[in-house]
Amino acid sequence: MQTLTVDLGDRSYPIHIGPGLLDRAELIVPHLPQKRVMVVSNATVAPLYLARLTAALEGAGVTVANVVLPDGEAYKTWETLNLVFDALLGQRAERKTTLIALGGGVVGDMTGFAAACYQRGVPFVQVPTTLLSQVDSSVGGKTGINHPLGKNMIGAFHQPQAVLADTDTLQTLPARELSAGLAEVIKYGLIRDVEFLAWLEANMARLRALDPAAITHAIHRSCEIKAQVVAADEREGGLRAILNLGHTFGHAIESGMGYGNWLHGEAVAAGMVLAAQTSRRLGWLGDADVARTRAIVRAAGLPDAAPELPFDTWIESMGHDKKVEGGRLRFVLLKQLGEAVITGEVPETALREILIP
Amino acid sequence: MQTLTVDLGDRSYPIHIGPGLLDRAELIVPHLPQKRVMVVSNATVAPLYLARLTAALEGAGVTVANVVLPDGEAYKTWETLNLVFDALLGQRAERKTTLIALGGGVVGDMTGFAAACYQRGVPFVQVPTTLLSQVDSSVGGKTGINHPLGKNMIGAFHQPQAVLADTDTLQTLPARELSAGLAEVIKYGLIRDVEFLAWLEANMARLRALDPAAITHAIHRSCEIKAQVVAADEREGGLRAILNLGHTFGHAIESGMGYGNWLHGEAVAAGMVLAAQTSRRLGWLGDADVARTRAIVRAAGLPDAAPELPFDTWIESMGHDKKVEGGRLRFVLLKQLGEAVITGEVPETALREILIP
């Protein structure tokens, strides 16, 4: 097991990474203000891991209730969130009851938001079971739900008490979702650490085969980079926006294709290629850099090109993204591989060339 | 105009109190990160004051959109809140768009919660138009909505940028609601300032006649006491709970009688009398203190006795209140007039005697 601390003053918390963590209640119990928890999971993950986590916690004297949500981004809605509130109120959960998110990013985002709002804030612990959620949504404190007019538009910043990333749970993850998680891992290399990018290029086959040492390192380094960025800018004033490399384009792809058709990581992968191409258009990256970006994305089993969408659809969808200020679209681009920058200075002609090739 | 500052470090904000503030956009504009606002009001208040506030803001160069919600506690729900999100997203409101709550406590709580959640947090300004919201919900940062199983169960702490309490708006407030607001004013005297209680006893007729100097003083002193308590305990760890004098009983009355039948302030008034009676039962207050409590409540036009409810209904409803810890009911009682205490040590026999007289 490796442990990393996200440094946020009195809201600092540990991320534990490694095999077999589901059974280790001693990593959770010290964070509970009361030995009472509500595990929130989904219909896919609960049959695989809920009993084990429950047994471990009950063995440590914790009273465990649970609520199982339908699985999928389509259910990241108020209606589903309300099932958590119904369960909490039905069980008379109190302000010191801790929520535990057992599942992927959707479960984590919704559980975190439920914890942020229930009685105006209760503690929560993340037990992410997908690579995407292990490297991404378990660091940063972003929680929320979707609105028909935009993704993640309703939410809160709410930090967990602890994160347990059990790498064993990736054994049951579909290959397509593993690849989607690798998109975010690649992102950390692209925005902040060209050496990590090179390590990923050399180790992609081991990662896709779930080699334990490789996967633990990839998660650890990804969380480390994200934690550094988040610690420097907890509430997304500036630097933190670089974590959105590929996301402005990616959200437009997800929205333009209908949520759920492209996985978030797939859309981000294609979005990172678009960001690289835009960066080349601005003279920051060379052809070889763009080729390298496409190659690592392909090696991870991800799409290296965006789907065809009308130009107006792109602009419309990107305008709903949160990275808008004063009505002007802002993009995260690459000054070079390993160094992201934020810019509002992308001419529409350049965008049009790249989006409608 | 009187101005009071709620001292919360970098989230400190002013409360302006006095006549004619609706027209004074210069009190709002310095708090806007962008000259763009969304006014949230309700179907009762909007026809009275929305045009005036809008004209003042537009005169100061602010772009003003609005959304008008149905009026009443029954609409303090997710469905109504979603009308605000629909409007914000429909207007493409950004992270620097400011929400302005124009209305009573329900509008304030929902607007504040919408501001807390929209894109994970945007600024908001309170323009409370009822006495209750001027003395109570505009200080403290509590926002939220109701759930079928409990009042204010879903919410957030989110501080406004500024509060404008225009005392002229009380002219259109029904007398019954003015009395309900006075319940909270009386509460501040009971929990923290016996001299203010005496001043209220001497000036109740002037207050009910909306004498400008008297009403401004009552609002100012109430906000001052609440601000002191909140500044000492922003997130409700301890002291702040004294603000809930009468509320545990009051919530049970509101819930037991069906929300909307008793006004919140009416239920709190009867709840404060029950708290005084319980305090006498524990030997803290004398008969004269209880009589004085009942008399000031009656003088304000408020009920000085609770409705008849089955004992189990009381216990059941109070158990859903947020002031529960470790399954034990906690009460805010009076050590003496002007000094509230929090206790978990009320024997069930005592409760039964007081609730089922």
Description:
Two copies of one chain form a homodimer. The model of chain A has no long low-confidence stretch (mean pLDDT 92). In chain A, a hairpin with a 2-residue loop joins strand 12 (331-336) and strand 13 (339-343). Chain A is an alpha/beta fold and 357 residues long. In chain A, the strands form four sheets. In chain A, strands 1-2-9-6-5-3-4 form a seven-stranded mixed sheet, sandwiched between helices. The first copy, chain A, has twelve helices and 13 strands. Chain A binds chain B through residues 34, 78, 82, 85-86, 89-90, 92, 94-96, 116-121, 142, 144, 147, 149-150, 153-157, 235-236, 319-320, 322, 324-327, and chain B through 34, 78, 82, 85-86, 89-90, 92, 94-96, 116-121, 142-144, 147, 149-150, 153-157, 235-236, 319-320, 322, 324-327.
Task: Determine the mean pLDDT of chain A.
Answer: 92
Amount of beta strand of chain A: 15-25%
Number of helices of chain A: 12
Spatial order of strands in the largest sheet of chain A: 1-2-9-6-5-3-4
Sequence stretches where pLDDT stays below 50 over 5 or more residues of chain A: none
**Briefly, what CATH class of the largest domain in chain A?**
Mainly Alpha
The CATH architecture of the largest domain in chain A: Up-down Bundle
Rg of chain A, Å, rounded:
20 Å
Distance between the termini of chain A: 46 Å
Largest sheet of chain A: 7 strands, mixed
CATH superfamily of the largest domain in chain A: Dehydroquinate synthase-like - alpha domain
CATH fold annotation of the largest domain in chain A: Dehydroquinate synthase-like, alpha domain
What is the total tally of β strands of chain A?
Answer: 13
